Each structure stands twice: as structure tokens, then as C-alpha cells.
């Protein structure tokens, strides 16, 4: 058995000391009367999605830590600030409230962000992407799943089937692109059911949907609960997916110091998540009702999502490619992505560290075990090493995670598709990628999880 390694700090691009230093940088006050020390009270309204857990550094986790309120108190401009946190299930109502002038700052996924941009321009209430929360450079935040007893094993099997998704979401974008690559018309080749995630999950369980394409954390949650199995790993597209923060243009211009305070607080919450991934997962789980094991799958030390506020060029390029999908669905027209992106405020908030963070990339995911009762996880150099440990500690494991051998997408070890190739034991998220590996490697074979444990031990 491979010896476990000490868990490395997650994808850190600056040291803890540097993080602390940047958070103490002075904020630039704006010139409005409310921020000039006249004793006014200003309410800042933040829209977030508690269960869309790749936005936690701008929502659930940030709210629980109180960092935004502390940053506002530190402004010292004579204004009393109150934060009104509003929780929503999706990005659409946040956009509606923003364009109505009722939400100042919001967070949502990449496709909803584009709709946010389009609606804002259409209604003369422009918004801007000001920072990023969680991202995956290959697209692993979205997954297509089927029922546990489904006989479907590949995307080609979806032809003529009922597939639930949320039209206009990133998960819908993944479905459309994946079907196109499989040679299936995404409009006429399937019967698409436009449903909210919870409705789609129920439809899958009831048998009224053959498959479900959804965003974090639904695929992982259903797999963890034994209510679904993966059919397609969104990272197979090798196209970035992400969540970000959008702000009303008029709000940003009127209160730039407040927006910068929010982005400093987001950076502080990101540093906390990196330093305390288990505690952060437990905190988010408590606030959302999601299992902490599922939160950790996405937000953990080697999770599917990487958190960093910088607006990376790869993500902006992905947004531009996403526009065509929304246009084809007649959800938007042309969108000027370059005009929508405004990273001036986050650059000021992060200071000198911005350039370094902008070019940083996450290291490859690693196999990881979360022991019962532990406040830290254990990392292994190989999936086989993890399996050997699990085999010897079956009653002491809270969760075990392994990266897909092809895409690197983290998945639950007991929900992965395992392949034995000589002495190597390789995990895959989806059966089709496992089969592709077997077909390309003579002697390799698909094995059950129980068999993989036995082979490892």
C-alpha cells in the first residue's frame, strides 16, 4: 500500500501571509454623500444560491463567516452598512431582481451570467462580471446521470429518450454540446424536459425521465444517495465551466468601495476554504442541508471546483463560445462579452497578487479519503493506494474520492467505474470512458468496486 501523503493546501496561488496582507489593503472610497461620512445607513443586497455550492465564496460560506460585514465596518467612512442576503434556487430570479434595481451583487453560473448580461443591456440596466467563484477548466461541474438500474451506457443511447435539464443553464449547454459530438440532434434527437433540478431529479427517480443533465451539486448528490449513476462526465468536452459574481453597473459606479469590500471579503472566504476545506464543507452542509461528503466532492482540497476570484482569459473565451448555444435556443441575441467583463474592481481588491493568481492553474486531482470523525483528509499517490487503505479500514471511512483516469474529475470511489489493467486500478466517472480505455488497452477489463478493493488489498 502506498503511504498516505499530508494533504497539500488546495490550489493556493499566494501564501497565507500574502492573503492577510492584501486583505488589509486600504479601500478607495467613492464620492457619494452616503459614503462621505454623513451618517447615512446604506443597505447592500446580495443575491446568492446556497445550494449552487460553487458560489459559496460569494454566498453561503461568505455569509456564515461574516467577512463582508467586517470589510464594510472597516471602511470607516461614517456610513452604517447593512447587508441583505437573499437566497435563490437559480440565477434567473437574481437577474430579474438586479435589472429591477433590487439586488446589487449576485452570483450564478456561466450561462446564467450571459443571460444576466443580455437582460441588463436589453432593459437599460447593464451588469458586469466582476469576479469568479468556482471553476473547472475542463467542464467537470456538469454531469449527465441516469437511474441506478438504467441500461443506458453512452450518449448514443439517449437518442429518442426523455432527458431532463434546465434550459438556459450550463448543464443544458453541456447536454447540447455532448449530444452534438455524439452525432445526435439536440433538438429533434431527444425529448428535452425543461425542469428545475429538483423536479428533474424526481422525474428520474419516477422513471418519467431517462436521464438528467444538471450542474453542481445535483449529480454528485444523486450519485451519493444511490439515486443515479453517471452517464457522461462534462469534462469530456474539455471546455471550461465556472460560476461568477455580477454587479449592477450603476451600483459599482456609485459605491466602488463597497464592491471592492465585497471582493476582498470573497478573497478572504476563498483563503479560508483553501486552508480549511473540511470545516468549510461542514459549514456549507449545515447551511444548505446537503451532505458534507457531497459538498467536499466539489469544494474539497482536490475537488472538482477550483476557487479563485481572478477573471481568467480561458473563462472569458469560454463565455464567448457559450453565446452561440444560447442564441440557438433563442434565449439571447448577440452578447458583447468583452463589454460585460469588468475586472477593475477585483484587480484593486487583490492588489499585487492579481497577476500571479491570474496565470495559476490547479494541480492534478488526487485520491483522497475522509476518515470518520476526522477534521482532515488523507491523500494517496494512486487510486490503488486509496483502495488498499479503504479495504483495511472499511468501518472507518466517511468518504473516498478518486480522479477519473482520463479527465481528472473527482468522483466517489464506490460510484466510479473501475478498470483493472495489469497491476493498475483505474477509476472512471462514466462507463463509456472506461470502455474506451479497455478497448485501447489489451488485457484491461472492467471490474466491480468490490473486486477492485480485493485486488488492491
Automatic annotation (TrEMBL):
InterPro entries, A to Z: SsuA/THI5
The signal peptide annotation in the UniProt record is: 1-36
Keyword Manganese part of the UniProt annotation: no
Tell me the ranges covered by the SsuA/THI5-like domain, including all copies: 95-280
This protein's UniProt keywords: Signal
SUPFAM superfamilies in the record: NosL/MerB-like, Periplasmic binding protein-like II
Q: Which Gene3D superfamilies match?
A: Periplasmic binding protein-like II
> Does the keyword field hold Signal?
yes
The record, for PANTHER family, names:
ABC TRANSPORTER SUBSTRATE-BINDING PROTEIN, ALIPHATIC SULFONATES-BINDING PROTEIN-RELATED
Q: What is this protein called?
A: ABC transporter substrate-binding protein
Q: Which organism is it from?
A: Streptomyces antibioticus
